[in-house]
Write a structure and sequence with these properties.
Layout: H1 2-29, H2 37-56, H3 59-79, H4 85-105, H5 122-144, H6 151-169
């Protein structure tokens, strides 16, 4: 019985590692659309960091991989005209999968016991990532639109920032 559980647990870990590495490397691959050398360099560094974080399970390396991958995507969007809003939305979904996957494959810390952080129902837990993807899509489309000064856009930005602050600090 314990051998079956161990094999199932090992298979789930390998699957989590593969999905995590795939999401991180796919997000880094989006930077290859840019022809600028700095964007590609940061993308390659991020890809190496993702691979090392998944294989080692070190939390600090997972944080560095997430930071490098996010920086690579943002740099590609800021510098290159080849990266459009659709690429940013896909990259945001891949970054969410990367963060969730790294959380699963990282080695546990040296805490005294396990702590359950979130026991809410699935629709409520899924709301925050869905909201993040929708917000990313809105920012990506707005960022590529022609610049027209507008008080409405400023107020919308302030409302979005306030909403993000409320979601982040809300205690359940």
């Amino acid at each position: 019985m314990t051998a079956e559980v161990s094999v199932a647990h090992g298979g789930a870990t390998v699957l989590a590692m593969a999905v995590t590495a795939g999401a991180g490397l796919a997000a880094c691959a989006l930077t290859l659309l840019a022809e600028e050398r700095p964007v590609r360099t940061v993308g390659i560094v991020a890809a190496v960091a993702v691979g090392a974080a998944v294989l080692s399970g070190w939390r600090w390396l997972g944080s560095a991989a997430t930071l490098a991958t996010t920086a690579a995507v943002l740099l590609a969007a800021a510098i290159s005209d080849d990266v459009g809003p659709g690429h940013l939305v896909v990259a945001s979904v891949l970054l969410l999968v990367l963060v969730a996957g790294l959380d699963r494959v990282e080695r546990p810390g040296r805490s005294a016991g396990s702590v359950v952080l979130n026991r809410t129902r699935l629709p409520r837990r899924a709301g925050v990532p869905v909201l993040a993807v929708v917000a990313t899509a809105g920012v990506a489309v707005t960022a590529t639109a022609p610049v027209v000064p507008s008080a409405g856009l400023v107020l919308l930005g302030l409302a979005a920032g306030l909403g993000a602050l409320l979601v982040a600090t809300r205690s359940t």
